[in-house]
């Protein structure tokens, strides 16, 4: 087991199987030394853990926890492609989408769930550029979706 996966376990989490795509795409693709994940929803054991808009049916705190699940699922997609999370040299960018109630403006705090998780797992290699975007709706009425770009060693 890699030290990255050991750190995930120490955080009380388990790296899941990669979620099956919902449409015509693949979970992750490599271009050169970068791996780009497709947007990952807060799926657990093949099911969406929560639905609704953040700031309405879903609290900001709940959404932050869901963003962590999304980031965990994104790491699973990376592992499926490259085989070993130890190959990750750095998390380059995180993009987080937050299905938001019209008056909700706390998207950065929600996406912190993914960012803080990646920092806990990778330390300085987990510090990244980021976008946190509010949207009207996400697939399956998910509250949060996260995608990653990571640099890997060849």
TrEMBL record:
InterPro entries: Endoribo_LPSP/chorism_mut-like, RutC-like_sf. Pfam families: YjgF_endoribonc (PF14588). Residues 6-151 form the Endoribonuclease L-PSP/chorismate mutase-like domain. This is Unannotated protein. It comes from freshwater metagenome.
């Amino acid at each position: 087991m890699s030290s990255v996966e050991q750190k995930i376990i120490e955080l009380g989490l388990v790296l899941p199987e990669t979620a099956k795509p919902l449409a015509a795409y693949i979970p992750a693709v490599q271009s050169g030394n970068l791996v780009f994940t497709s947007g990952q929803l807060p799926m657990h054991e093949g099911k969406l853990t929560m639905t609704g808009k953040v700031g309405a049916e879903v609290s900001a705190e709940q959404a932050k926890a869901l963003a962590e699940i999304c980031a965990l699922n994104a790491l699973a997609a990376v592992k499926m492609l490259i085989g070993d999370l130890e190959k990750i040299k750095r998390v380059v960018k995180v993009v987080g989408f937050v299905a938001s109630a019209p008056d909700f403006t706390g998207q950065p705090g929600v996406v912190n769930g993914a960012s803080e998780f990646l920092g806990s797992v990778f330390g300085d290699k987990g510090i990244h550029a980021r976008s946190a975007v509010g949207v009207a709706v996400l697939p399956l009425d998910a509250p949060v979706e996260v995608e990653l770009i990571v640099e890997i060693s060849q």
